[in-house]
Specification:
Blueprint (H helix, E strand, L loop, with lengths): L3 H15 L1 H13 L4 H8 L3 H13 L3 E6 L3 E6 L1 H5 L4 H12 L8 H10 L3 E3 L8 H14 L7 H22 L4 E3 L18 E3 L5 E3 L1 H20 L2 H13 L17 H6 L20 H12 L7 H5 L3 E4 L2 E4 L1 H10 L6 H12 L4 H7 L4 H13 L4 E6 L9 E6 L2 H27 L2 H10 L2 H5 L6 H33 L10
Antiparallel strand pairs: 1-2, 3-6, 4-5, 7-8, 9-10
Helix pairs in contact: 1-2, 1-19, 8-9, 10-11, 11-13, 17-18, 19-22, 20-22
């Protein structure tokens, strides 16, 4: 089940998108966990017909899983992550408009749909997407463990888990391989050639599609990496990074990739516009260096070729292997998730523990060059916020506290979960503030008047005071939207970039 902050935010999203009745059903599932239809009707005290309609809507929008087991029968479970992704729908629409242009005419609808599907921006909605992958993973792991004879070892258990995960992933890939089909021969022109064989595919009208969030998330990740390169070096380096990412943009399918596909320096230099002056960011010996040589210098700078140490590799953005350029998504994502504002003593302690590892209070005070009376309350405050944790090391078998070492360390998974809880609370408060601003009596009256047909066609029918109220309300809405986007960006760094590698690699 989701925690309190996540549940409140999900209920708020469902209420704003589907109404209060559907939100009541979602609230029951979030607070009580997996339920059957009879249990939902009893807990929500809503008519069975209304509950069925709410379930149908949420299943259709992929925010509700349903499963049929022999022990429990048909059960329903809320898909929390899918619901939270609805906060990015506006950004996804904007990104699609940037890629494919504004709304096209109906005659070009099929062409745009084909581009979205072939580019992996849309993926088929399969039966597997409506079932909880956790249930299938548990089932497959049980089947693999049943094949083990005798008492299973840790290696055999790990292999069974990996086999079950690979089987689940293979089933998902096979189920999502549909969507396009070959055109009938009578629809293909006589002048079609082998070079245009890809144009002979058409969209299968019998398949339902849904948005592929992973594909759109790659653009958010690329923008963050570009901004990080600009902050670390300069604008020209950010430009080279943007072009490098664009060279492999088509083959980027998910944010879980630890490294991009290879590209070459020549391919990157071709994408540099003639109007872009890369020489402003570097001091070169020649008066007018070529674009290819400048790109090579920037790539060497971002790959930390002048610092071939573990610290230099950890600060790099790309890798140069056999004259091929790779963008290191895993390294950059790890650095983004650990990034904090400098200048505070609390951040100094957290970074010290991240770099060195477990330390006791005296060691922290000595290495951080801070007095003990300052370090002690800081450690207590950080621990109360779940940013740092303690590890007990007893010196005797009785585990007497007076004869026990207490080592402080950073549990990244626990710290990220606590930070995500605070961010979800902030997003919920932003939504409540937006709702309160809209329900203010004066603003509500003006909005109702503007919704009239005659006023919508001619806003001059509004008085000057009403236009001022409307302008002030729109300004507040814009500020709240900007704040929501910034918080959502932090959520993306902490939650979605966590898919790159595993926790042991962080």
């Amino acid at each position: 089940m989701a925690d309190a902050e996540t549940s409140r935010l999900c209920v708020q999203i469902v209420r704003s998108h589907f109404g209060p009745l559907t939100a009541n059903v979602a609230s029951a599932l979030l607070t009580r966990g997996r339920l059957s239809l009879a249990q939902l009707i009893r807990y929500t005290m809503i008519k069975p017909r209304t509950v069925r309609a709410a379930i149908l809507v949420m299943v259709q929008h992929n925010i509700l899983w349903h499963s049929n087991t022999e022990e429990e029968g048909e059960m329903l479970e809320f898909h929390t992550l899918e619901c939270l992704m609805r906060l990015r729908f506006g950004r996804f629409v904007w990104q699609a408009e940037q890629l494919f242009g504004p709304s096209v005419r109906s005659s070009l609808y099929s062409q745009t749909l084909y581009k979205l599907i072939s580019g992996a921006y849309l993926k088929p909605s399969t039966l597997l997407s409506h079932h909880s992958p956790r249930d299938k993973r548990i089932k497959y792991e049980a089947e693999e463990k049943a094949k083990i004879t005798g008492f299973p070892t840790a290696k055999e258990l790990r292999e069974a888990q990996e086999t079950a995960e690979a089987r689940l992933k293979r089933e998902e890939e096979e189920a999502e391989s549909v969507g396009l089909k070959r055109k009938p021969k009578d629809l293909i022109g006589h002048r079609s050639s082998k070079k245009k064989a890809i144009e002979e595919d058409m969209v299968d009208d019998g398949v339902y599609f849904r948005v592929n969030f992973d594909k759109f998330n790659t653009y958010i990740r690329n923008k963050l990496i570009e901004m990080a390169a600009g902050e670390r070096f300069n604008r020209s380096a950010a430009l080279v990074m943007r072009v490098t990412l664009k060279a492999t943009e088509v083959r980027q399918k998910s944010v879980s990739d630890a490294r991009s596909d290879p590209t070459s320096t020549a391919a990157i230099a071709i994408l540099i516009s003639d109007d872009d002056d890369l020489s402003t960011g570097l001091v070169t010996s020649t008066k007018k260096a070529s674009s290819a040589s400048l790109v090579k210098d920037y790539l060497g700078l971002m790959s930390a070729v002048d610092n071939p140490t573990p610290a230099g590799k950890a600060a790099s953005f790309i890798s140069l292997i056999d004259n091929k350029v790779y963008v290191e998504f895993g390294i950059v994502s790890k650095r983004l998730r650990r990034r904090n504002d400098t200048g505070t003593t609390g951040v100094r302690i957290v970074r010290l523990l991240l770099d060195i590892g477990k330390m006791d209070e005296k060691q922290i005070a000595k290495v951080a060059m801070m007095p003990n009376n300052v370090v002690r309350p800081l450690l207590a405050a950080l621990s109360s916020d779940f940013l740092i944790s303690t590890q007990e090391v007893p010196r005797s078998a009785d585990r007497n506290p007076t004869r026990t070492f207490y080592l402080w360390h950073v549990d990244l998974h626990k710290a990220y979960s606590a930070l995500l809880g605070h961010l979800y609370k902030t997003l919920y408060n932003i939504g409540m503030r937006r709702q309160a601003e809209q329900e203010e009596p004066t603003v509500k009256a003006v909005l109702e008047k503007r919704a009239r047909t005659d006023v919508a066609q001619d806003e001059n029918l509004l008085s000057r005071m009403e236009r001022d109220v409307l302008k002030e309300w729109e300004t507040k809405q814009e500020k709240l939207t900007v704040l929501e986007m910034r918080v959502e960006e932090a959520v993306f760094i902490l939650r979605d970039l966590d898919k790159v590698g595993s926790h042991e690699d962080i």
